[in-house]
Amino acid sequence: MSLPQYWRTPLCLAPRPLHPWLTERGSLTAMLMAHFPEISVKVLFQGWQKAHLDEADCLGKAQIACREVLLKSQHTPLVYAHSITSAAALRKGFHLFGRTGSRPLGALLFADPTICRSHLSWCCIDQRHPLWQKAQAAVGTLPQKLWARRSVFYAGSDKLLVTEVFLPALFT
């Protein structure tokens, strides 16, 4: 998978309290549950849309299946997550993607031993990035810059791109 250069930001540039969150290779939801009470998933969008410019290399520019959620502790948003896959992958390797509902996507991904994960990439996004804009629309006022991480899950040749944007309440 090819990512734009800015998705290869050195980890040392991220705030130190975010390092464990950015580098966790296991389930982010499980890590959140270990640190915060009452983690819940609020589905913001599930449907078809065009891939963002920095996602196009992974899945192409065609219509993609998209799921956008907030991971919250009680009523406090902690992570905005944006996951995409192709129509073909919905029929094969990621057929459960469309039926996840308010369950964490990680519960499906990490329960299946045939699904592999790519390396993690991270970057700082600002108000020019569509995911920063979507996170702000979901939670209200945000700092000018947010840190995010991205990885691809593979089920055979099928791909699922997951991007997680870390919101201020997570590390303040």
UniProtKB/TrEMBL annotation:
Organism: Iodobacter arcticus
Superkingdom: Bacteria
Major localization class: cytoplasm
Ligand binding (substrate): R67, L105, E164
Pathway in which this enzyme or protein is active: Cofactor biosynthesis; ubiquinone biosynthesis
Protein name, UniProt field: Probable chorismate pyruvate-lyase
Pfam families documented for this protein: Chor_lyase
InterPro entries in the record: Chorismate--pyruvate_lyase (IPR007440), Chorismate_lyase_/UTRA_dom_sf (IPR028978)
Family recorded in the similarity comment: Belongs to the UbiC family.
Keyword hit for Membrane: no
Subcellular location: Cytoplasm
EC number(s) given by UniProt: 4.1.3.40
Keyword Iron-sulfur in annotation: no
Reactions that this protein is recorded to catalyse: chorismate = 4-hydroxybenzoate + pyruvate
